[in-house]
């Protein structure tokens, strides 16, 4: 499992591995993905096995541009508007799958929809172009755990299961893509993510509702138990116990924790998003009996940060 700096040579090696049916981890602007040729059911099986991911949870297919995306899914006017506004970038669109798309059924968990995304990352783009493949890629972590935002995180999660880990440095956004379903009259927000809800609404020109998680198969991956460190989380902390680690936010953090990481002393939500998962990993290993988390404003990208924190806190 070589971790290789994402040089041109390493990228073409990774493309060849994908073409041979192997799985490869690569950076995107959101989190690291574990990629497989989306047309190759056998390769996609390796992704589910490496992650220990339930088969009912479909994968996002990564493509280089809108034109490629349109070969796999039907875009209506709304979908095209969103794609034009946010691609390349951290938005995934769930759309009606074209019957002759050639995408393995396992990728879409047998649904008649497909999730598509055009990543905004030079390495991801180069890999898609070099392989000429649609690349099915979930986050490169074990199912239920924190998504990786560095190549080292991937190695810690998956060891030598990927044929290769392309190292493109830390991910700029740090939160997974926002997932929007556009299959009927009204678009639905299936997962909060790196594109804030108000940004999607600004393009749509109207509010967008978050899917009810209890609704059947709204977003199969939005399982409650997700993004989970091993250490329990305590949310909305205003003070800390000496045996706690502190995940702080803003200029006035309480003193006295075992270890403290401030997501953003300047109270910048984008900075906090970028640092969230890596910070949880560090605090998880600090030996603290609990991770106290200060409250984070629920506006803009803060809404997605709070979504991930709530899931992490619910895990045990
Ligand atoms: O930022 C990201 O989206 C990263 C990078 C690697 O691109 N990928 C990622 O994939 O987060 P994953 O597998 O961890 O999350 C994909 C989400 C899951 O919640 C899954 O249920 C949902 O997308 N999804 C995929 N296909 C779907 C479909 N056809 N209908 C509804 N939800 C779908
Ligand atoms: Mg994931």
What does this structure look like?
With 316 residues, the chain is of the alpha/beta class. It folds into two domains: 3-210, DHBP synthase (Alpha-Beta Complex), CATH 3.90.870; 233-313, Threonylcarbamoyl-AMP synthase, C-terminal domain (Rossmann fold), CATH 3.40.50. 30% of the residues lie in helices and 18% in strands. It is built from nine helices and 15 strands. The protein has helices at residues 8-19, 41-51, 66-72, 77-86, 122-131, 151-158, 197-204, 269-284, 302-314; strands at residues 3-5, 24-26, 33-37, 60-62, 91-96, 113-117, 135-136, 164-167, 178-181, 188-191, 209-210, 233-234, 244-248, 259-262, 290-293. The strands form two sheets. It has an eleven-stranded mixed beta sheet, with helices on both faces. Strands 12-15-13-14 form a four-stranded parallel beta sheet. Helix 1 crosses helix 5. It is globular. The two termini are 32 Å apart.
Helix content: 25-40%
Kindly estimate the percentage of residues that lie in beta strands according to DSSP. Answer: 15-25%
What's the SSE pattern?
EHEEHEHHEEHEHEEEHEEEEHEH
Q: Strands of the biggest beta sheet: in what spatial order?
A: 1-8-2-3-7-4-6-5-9-10-11
What is the rounded Rg? 19 Å
Average pLDDT score: 95
Number of helices: 9
Question: How many domains comprise the coordinates?
Answer: 2
Proper CATH architecture of the largest domain: Alpha-Beta Complex
What fold name stands as the CATH topology of the largest domain?
DHBP synthase
Cofactors, ions, other ligands: threonylcarbamoyladenylate, magnesium ion
State the assembly state of the protein chains.
single chain
